[in-house]
Amino acid sequence: MPVAFAKVAFTPSVLAQQERMGSGRYARLLSEDRQGGDRIGPAERTFIEQIDGFYQATVSETGWPYVQFRGGPRGFLRVLDDQTIAYADLSGNRQYISLGNLTRNQRVALILMDYVHARRLKIWGHVEIADPDDGDLATRVPTPGTGQVERLITIRVAALDWNCPQHIPQRLNTEDVADQIKALKAENDALRDVIARGQK
Q1: Domain residues for 142?
Q2: Fewer CB within a 10 Å sphere, N or C end of the chain?
């Protein structure tokens, strides 16, 4: 288990529950020789830049969590370096709950889902909010074709961890289904051609 993840997630109350429930061994995994969990490697980069949506949690100044879904074309969430990700924040329902929360508490938690392959990546980080015309950043963050970009969000990764796939339901999106249908149709056409040639 990455030490950065444990340092963020294993608060005193969490450690107490682990001991009470018999899983205190997790806490004992923390040691000076265990490093990592706060850098984006090749596997994480590939995963991050191929997803088409994620869940984002912020916390209000009154302590209430708020979870929102962010979606876009594959690649809309971009890896800028081994500790920074970014996306263009589009105009939505104009409630600005996430934005308001982030102006008081820059901490954010993301869950990135790949339902097709039952994979899930958790990310904790600190947000910086930039103007959509912010020079160099604007050229590095993809702009989805629909909607008005109101701001650019960069997230400095504090910790990340791959989640257990055990209870992730497998779901296919329309793009995956269309690709599978296309492949099956091509295979079917090829088999028909073989049968037709054999009957001549």
Answers
A1: 38-193
A2: C
* 200 domain residue, yes or no: no
List C-alpha distances in Å: 61 to 112, 138, 185: 25, 29, 54
Question: Residue 142: inside a domain, yes or no?
Answer: yes
pTM: 0.80
Give pLDDT tens digits along the chain (200 positions). Answer: 678 888 888 888 988 888 888 877 766 665 554 556 899 999 999 999 999 999 999 999 999 999 999 988 899 999 999 999 999 998 877 899 999 999 999 999 999 999 888 899 999 999 999 998 877 888 899 887 677 889 999 999 999 999 877 888 878 777 778 888 888 899 998 888 888 887 76
**91 plus 7 within the same structural domain:** no
The reply to whether 63 and 31 lie within a common domain is no
Q: Is residue 98 part of a domain?
A: yes
* Angstrom distance (rounded) from CA 30 to CA 20: 18
Which run of H or of E encompasses 158?
Answer: strand 149-162
Same domain, 20 and 65: no
Are 36 and 162 in contact by the 8 Å Cβ rule? The answer is no
Across the beta sheet with 107-114, what order do the strands follow?
A: 65-71, 53-59, 107-114, 119-130, 149-162, 84-90, 78-81
